[in-house]
Amino acid sequence: MHIWVDADACPGVIKEILFRAAERMQIPMTLVANKLLRTPSSAYIHALQVPHGFDVADDEIVLRMQASDLVITADIPLAASVIDKGGHALNPRGEFYTPENIQSALSLRNFMAELRDSGVETGGPTTFSQSDRQAFANQLDRFLMRIAKNN
User: Fold this and answer.
1) pLDDT digits over 56-80, tens only?
2) Which one of 11, 41, 87, 112 has the fewest beta carbons within 10 angstroms of its own beta carbon?
3) How does DSSP assign 52-110, residue by residue?
């Protein structure tokens, strides 16, 4: 298994949780972004810089990931592609996207985009909170423990 991180918009506190988890569990992890990223010196943690452009990082993750890999992303279309390829998608707020919930998430995303495009003020996502951080850490730990038990 490999952990892929859609790192351009991933909160720093989430990256720190992931750095510790990759080291502790000795799982390879790659952060993919269109800017240079600093990562801890580790045999397990790598950064991949891709060219600037719409969905370039997302496309690179989908190209490189394998079924059963974990992708950390808040990007719902990327999560849908990950699921289509047999991977797991976890957002930084601790919610797993699944075959059961991805279509409704895509529909809601598209609906909100239509509202914004028509001039309706929809606001943005809520501020990233301590409970979001904890929810992410808990989901990640449960997922990694389940993977470890199955190997």
Assistant:
1) 999 999 999 999 999 999 999 999 9
2) 41
3) SSTTHHHHHHHHH--TT-EEE-S-HHHHHHHHHTT-EEE-TTSPEE-TTTHHHHHHHHH
Structure-token pair, residue 114: 């239509």
User: Does this model's pTM top 0.85?
Assistant: yes
Whole-angstrom distance, CA of residue 127 vs CA of residue 113: 19
CA-CA-CA-CA torsion sign (135, 138, 142, 147) = positive
pLDDT (tens digit, 9 = 90+) per residue, 108-140? 766 667 767 788 776 766 788 999 999 999 999
Chain segment 18-44, per-residue pLDDT in tens: 999 999 999 999 999 999 999 999 999
Go through the chain and tell me how many residues it has: 151
Q: Which two tokens stand for residue 61?
A: 């993750």
Residue 8 amino acid letter: D
Task: Give CA 5 to chain center in angstroms.
Answer: 5
